[in-house]
Every structure is written in C-alpha cells, then in structure tokens.
Amino acid sequence: MSISTLRRSARETVSGLPPGFWWLWLSTLVNRTGAFVLTFLSLYLTLELGHSAWFAGLVVALHGLGGVAGSPLGGVLTDRWGRRPTMVTMHLAGAACAAALAVVTSAWGIAAVVLLMGVAMQAVRPPINATIADMVPAHDVRRAYALNYWALNLGFAVASIGGGAAAFLGYRTLFVVDAVATVLCAVIVFLRLPETRPEQRPRAGGKSVAEPKVSTLTVLRDVPFRTLVLLNLLVCLVFTAPWIGLPLTMAGQGLSPSSYGAVIAVNGIVIVGFQLLVNKLTDKRSPVLLLVLSSLLFGLGTGATALAGSSVAFAATVVVWTVGEMIHVPTNAAATALLAPEHARGRYQGVMGMSWAVAGFVAPILAGAIVDGPGPDVLWAATAAIGVLAAVGYATLLRKALVEESGETKEIGGTGEAGETRETGAVVPVAVPTPVPAPAPVPVVVVEGEDAEGSPAGA
User: What does the alpha-carbon distance between residue 278 and residue 322 come to, in Å, rounded to a whole number?
Assistant: First the structure.
C-alpha cells in the first residue's frame, strides 16, 4: 500500500463529519491527555501515602462502583436536562474530585472522593455518545464513534508518557493538571458544542405530541437491547481480565514488571497507530458480523495467553484482543444508538455504560481470585469460552434486531424484521406496508408515538 493510498484512506476516514463532532473530539482528546488520576492513583496510594496494595485495589474498585451508579444517572440527565449541561456539569464535578485528591490524605476521604469521581466520569459518557448519535448521519455513526475512541486512546497515551513528570513534579501536581485539563474540556463543550437534544416534533395541525415516556425500567424491558447489554457485559469481562490477570501470569513465569509494562503498552500503540486503518477496513460491514468477529478475537487473544511463555508471545496475544477492542467498542456504541429511540438515547447509553462499569468492578475481583485459586490457565480458558459464547449470542440472538448497514433488514428506530416490533414499553406496532395496485389517495394515520411517516419515534 503506497503512501498516497494511506493518505487518501485517512482523508476519507475523517471527512464528511459535522464541525460539532470535531469540537467534541477535541474535548475528548484534551480530557484524556490530562487523565493522570486513574493512571497513577495506585502508585500514589502505595508509594507516597504508604497504603497497602489491598487498599489501593479497593479504591480503584470503588471508582468502578461509582460508575455503576453514574452511568444511568448520566443517561437520565442527558434526556431530561440536555446533552451539553450534563457534560459540562459532570466534567466540572470530575475536575473538582481530581483537585480534591491533591489535598485529601485520609484513607476514607480518598475513598469517598474516588467513588464520586467514578460517578462523574461515567455519567459523562451517555451525553457524549448521545450527542454523536444526534449530530452525525446514521451511515457515519460507527465511524464517528471509532474516531472518538481513537482520540480517547491518543490522549491516554500522551498522559501515560507525560506521567514520567511525577518523578520531579509529584503526584499531587499531576492531579491538579488533570483537574485543569478537565475544566478546559468543559469550557470547550460549553462554548463550542451545540445542544442536540431532540425537541418535541410538530404533528398535523401544528400541535406537538409528547414522545412516549421512557424510564430505565422501560429500557431494561427492551428485549433486543437488553440482550445487547448482557452480551456486551460478557465481552467486557473478557476485556477487563487481562489488566489484572496478565501481570500476575507474567510474574508467575518469572518475567519482570518492566516486561509487563512493555507488553501492555502494545495495546495503546496498536490503537493509536491502527484505529483509523481498522475503521476503514470494517466500514460498511454488518454490525452483527463485526460483533461476532470482535468477540472471537477477544476469546482467541486472551485464551492464547495460557500458551505464551515469553514477552514477545504475550505481546502477540495483546495485539489479537486489541484488534477485537478496536472493532467492538465503536460497533457496540453504534448498535446502542441504533436500537435507542431518539428521545431516549441518553438512557439507553446510560444502561449500556452500566455493563462496562459492572465489568470494571467485578472482573478484577474474579480474575484475582481465579489466579490465586485454580490458577491462570483456568482464567484464560474461561475468557476464551466466554468470548465464544458472546459470539454465538450475537449471531443467533441479535441478527434480526440489528440493522445491516446495507439497509436491507429494517429502518432505524425500533422495529425488527418487517411486521415485528421490539418489546419495549414505549414502541407501538408498525403496520407492514402493502403494495398499492393503482395510484390512489391513501389516508395518513398518525399514531401516538410515531412520526408523520409512520416510523417509530426516533427513526
């Protein structure tokens, strides 16, 4: 592949998206470039404050626990309050928590601040994902999510490198820098990002009809989406396991912590270097196919860890599941946006975010227990099996619910195959259009919860 071909491919990957998306992309990059708290929190707690490794692990787990509550909270605020005010408020709350960590030294105080920080950081994800779905054309949504995920990892890579400054600046200074970067992110959103929350649409006669009310319980009753969430939870468990199990496995084979650092750095290098290429290769592919493929790559990459015996071999396994990560994250986000009614995108993204937060809390505990108990080989065999199980689930349970990007299966907005409707508390049946033998006036029936074209609200 020539340099000119690569340049043309890169231009095609980033072209055609609205200006508002790029301001959101920039805010993500700025935010993650200053993300020093999570990167160095465990080192700060153990090396500087003298707490035990057990306490450090507990505090990090509390951050994930806060996310379990923060994600649905952010989803509700996104739909009720608006995308932009939710983002600004939660960014400022996260900045306040980062700044507080620079001055709070008591064990319980640190635990409480980190818990609240988990709430704020996870609550900002639903409005970000909902905004992308609002402003980007449907055929470009997955590409937009991939680009935003690339910005997130690019910023994180910069933060990891810049973290070397802790040696002479100190951890508290880095936490203050984190707070400043998060405030700057909030300023970008406030000044440059438009509010995209859908307003009530006018109906016949100029009157507006309220969209069907959607609660978190309603979202959970949506069978296809609930299936998507549960399958994503399985994938998240597999994805999170290496971050705990891999260093323990490598240490058990006599490899040094620096070897693990080099191996896990492959994850960020591959994402930063190849996310755009992967997005180009997978563009226009079936979302079901991509979710199946990514699940298998997660299972293969983590399962092969049991066979690795050198740093190079471990790095190869990281490459495999990292490719799965690059495919899965934007595809899953786009599938969530696809299944969500327009007026309830925040709640749907919030519930999906819970699966990531739950996995972030549960997987480290399970992975550590399995390594200490039955052993690392059992852990990697389990992750391989879960990856395959998730792939089978995507192929068999969601094939009819997710839209093929060719547009052959269904229209966006809540219906499955022709004549089917998703089982939610807010979607009404949609009549299957039948051929009209001759041109004739056809009465237009406006159904509560549908737009003027007869598609479910949010199409």
Answer: 11
3-state secondary structure (DSSP) of residue 135: helix
Distance CA 8, CA 71 (A): 38
List of residues 6+ apart from 168 with CB closer than 8 A: none
CA 229/CA 351 separation, integer angstroms: 8
Instruction: Give the three-class secondary structure for 421.
Output: strand
Give residue for tokens 């779905």: 133
Residues 317 and 250: beta-carbon distance below 8 Å: no
Q: Residue 314 has which token pair?
A: 């471990």
Residue 240: CA count within 13 A, CB half-sphere: 22
Segment holding 310, helix H or strand E:
none
Alpha helices in 34-170 (DSSP H): 37-43, 53-80, 83-101, 107-123, 125-135, 141-162, 166-169
Asked if 88 and 32 count as a contact pair (C-beta separation under 8 A), the reply is no
Residue 418: alpha-carbon gap to chain centroid: 30
DSSP 48: I
Contact call for residues 66 and 112 (beta carbons, < 8 A): no
CA pair distance 54, 71, nearest whole angstrom: 26
- Closest to 455 (Cα-Cα) out of 211, 191, 140: 211
Per-residue pLDDT of the chain (459 residues; tens, 9 = 90+): 556 665 666 677 777 899 999 999 999 999 998 888 877 888 788 888 888 877 887 888 888 899 999 999 999 999 999 999 999 999 999 999 999 999 998 999 999 999 999 999 999 999 999 999 999 998 899 999 999 999 998 988 888 777 666 657 888 998 999 999 999 999 999 999 999 988 754 454 555 555 667 777 888 889 999 999 999 999 999 999 998 889 889 988 988 877 888 888 899 899 998 988 898 888 888 999 999 999 999 999 999 999 998 999 999 999 999 999 999 999 999 999 999 998 899 999 999 999 999 998 888 888 888 988 899 999 999 999 999 999 999 999 988 877 543 344 333 333 333 333 444 444 433 334 444 444 444 443 333 333 333 333 333
> DSSP per residue over 222-244, as a string?
-HHHHHHHHHHHHHHHHHHHHHH
Are the C-beta atoms of 299 and 388 separated by less than 8 Å? yes
How far apart are alpha carbons 276 and 326 in whole angstroms? 9
Dist. CA 111–CA 51, nearest whole Å: 12
Determine which helix (DSSP H) or strand (DSSP E) holds 17, and give its type and residue range: none
Torsion of the alpha carbons at 342, 348, 350 and 356, rounded to the nearest 10: -130
